[in-house]
Amino acid sequence: MNTPQYITDDKGKKLSVVLSMKDYKKILEELEELEDIRLYDEAKKNDTGERIPMDEAFKMIEAKRTQKK
Questions:
Q1: What digits encode the pLDDT tens for the residues 22-57?
Q2: DSSP string covering 26-52, please?
Q3: What phi and psi, each to the nearest 5 degrees, are found at residue 2?
Q4: Reduced 3-state DSSP string for 53-69
Q5: Distance (Å, rounded) from C-alpha 51 to C-alpha 25?
Q6: Which residues, in sequence order, are CB contacts of 26 under 8 Å at separation 6+?
Q7: Nearest by Cα to 17 from 28, 7, 2
Q8: Is the pLDDT of residue 17 over 80?
């Protein structure tokens, strides 16, 4: 990752950060992966023994993900 640049107020307090598009996209990819892991862990915790087809599971995960946007 490149060194981020900061936008500060007149007292030097950091208000915002400026990232390269490459770094921004990498962070987004990592967040999506973490969300997938979290959803997997949640599903394992709530395992009732009932199984559903993988395609249906992916649709459910994608529906949850789009609800949060």
A1: 999 999 999 999 999 998 898 888 777 778 899 998
A2: HHHHHHHHHHHHHHHHHHHHT--S---
A3: -80, 160
A4: CHHHHHHHHHHHHHHCC
A5: 34
A6: 1
A7: 7
A8: yes
For residues 3 and 18, what is the distance between their CA atoms, to the nearest angstrom?
9
Q: State pTM to two decimals.
A: 0.57
Residue 62 half-sphere exposure toward CB, CA atoms < 13 A = 6
* Radius of gyration (C-alpha) of the chain in whole angstroms: 18
**Amino acid, single-letter form, for residue 15:** L
Q: What token pair was written down for 68?
A: 């949060």
| DSSP label of 13 | -
d(CA 28, CA 49): 33
Write the DSSP symbol of residue 10. T
